[in-house]
Amino acid sequence: MYNISLKPQKVAPVKTKFRTIKTAIPSPSFVKTFSKLSRYEPQSLLVMIGKLPVLWDRAVDFQVFDKDGNCWIDFTSTIFAANTGHANPMIVAALKRQLAKPLLHSYTYATEIKAEFLEKLIKVTPKFCERAILFSGGSEAIEAAFLMMKAYGKSQNKSKTGIVSFEGAMHGVTMASQMLSGNSEVLSAYGYSDPTVYRLPFPYPWVDARYSGAERFKKDIDGLIRKGMKVKDIAGFMVEAYRGWGVIFYPPDYIKALVDFTRRNNILVAFDEIQGGFGRTGKMFTFQHYGVVPDLVLAGKGLSSSLPLSAVLGRKEVFNGADSLDVYHSTHSGNPLSCAVGLANLEELESKNLVGESARKGKILLNRLNALKKKHKNRVAYINGKGLVAAVLFKNPKTGEPDGEFASRVCERAMQKGLLLVHTGRESIKIAPPLTIPDEALKEGTMVLEESVKEISGK
């Protein structure tokens, strides 16, 4: 795998309305700060996939600034989080009001701001979302939903505790999320893997293309049954809204077949919308693209567009079925600062019609990315996306095989030119700007991407 250089490289200066590059990249301030961090953080965190060697000193709306006068267009939203823009003025104002109150921590005690936030959250989400519980991170929400589905199933049948997920999914970094994902290396380190977790192969469009989505689901679920899975013992399905690394959506008839299967067999469906929710895909939630209604929805990232905040939402019967487990809290559940910014974030999504704007701007983005593919068809294998999340998958022009090194080099070159892309460490790059990004900046960013592809390919 190609490693993006941590040593400063002289690059051409850039000065546009939205971008400024005036130093070597990585910049002097990054080098100084990284040197300090390297004395304290583990190596795996310092060079983790997805991080680019940029010092984040300030971030405003769709731009990121370092201490050396450099400015980037942000096509990452940090990690799909800043849906309403970095340091949204309404969010900053709400935070200042809460700080001035002052009430900075409240555990699970009653607070007005938590009640106001939950009331708004239930109001703006689909009707089946009757209850919600709050946490600080997506992995916590996954853990809670994992246990909730098992508890609900067990309340009907003591053996009904099985969970079905998808091979290679990314649900987080804690134990249940890793079991759902099936990361064998991590599970080996844990020394335990829940034998009642079953995994379906993800329906990639380039695998078994001769089957419809519905046929693919039936074939794969029958495969699990042949291997010993008993349908009567399955409590729930955990469904990634889309395959993260490549923004690959399921065939709609696949998801409809999956939900039909669960309804026939009294099985719950939970959608992990931590990355895809709150307008990212051009709808409030990604599952709405598939025309289905789940039982639970997991939210995070764009729920606050800023401070740590996540949630599990869904039908009250499911929540009631897990009351005895006491899984509905953690130290920072419903933190008043997070609730204050969460409320302001939801109000911004509504008042600025950012879900609709995501759908509209997504058409601009995908049109330009498809034009890129047409110009570089020997290099671009797939363009995937909905709303303001997309991926470009690169291939080797000679072999047609996935080309992760080329993708990494494109990310590096774009960074040197004032554009931040999501570096996956695979053959893909991901694009997910704040939903507030102006059309002009969106177009300039895609222009920089095309320049980077052209320069790295030598054409």
UniProtKB/TrEMBL annotation:
<comment type="similarity">
    <text>Belongs to the class-III pyridoxal-phosphate-dependent aminotransferase family.</text>
</comment>
<dbReference type="InterPro" id="IPR015421">
    <property type="entry name" value="PyrdxlP-dep_Trfase_major"/>
</dbReference>
<dbReference type="InterPro" id="IPR005814">
    <property type="entry name" value="Aminotrans_3"/>
</dbReference>
<dbReference type="GO" id="GO:0030170">
    <property type="term" value="F:pyridoxal phosphate binding"/>
</dbReference>
<keyword id="KW-0032">Aminotransferase</keyword>
<keyword id="KW-0808">Transferase</keyword>
<keyword id="KW-0663">Pyridoxal phosphate</keyword>
<dbReference type="GO" id="GO:0008483">
    <property type="term" value="F:transaminase activity"/>
</dbReference>
<dbReference type="InterPro" id="IPR015424">
    <property type="entry name" value="PyrdxlP-dep_Trfase"/>
</dbReference>
<dbReference type="GO" id="GO:0042802">
    <property type="term" value="F:identical protein binding"/>
</dbReference>
<dbReference type="InterPro" id="IPR015422">
    <property type="entry name" value="PyrdxlP-dep_Trfase_small"/>
</dbReference>
<dbReference type="Pfam" id="PF00202">
    <property type="entry name" value="Aminotran_3"/>
</dbReference>
<protein>
    <submittedName>
        <fullName>Aminotransferase class III</fullName>
    </submittedName>
</protein>
<dbReference type="InterPro" id="IPR050103">
    <property type="entry name" value="Class-III_PLP-dep_AT"/>
</dbReference>
<dbReference type="InterPro" id="IPR049704">
    <property type="entry name" value="Aminotrans_3_PPA_site"/>
</dbReference>
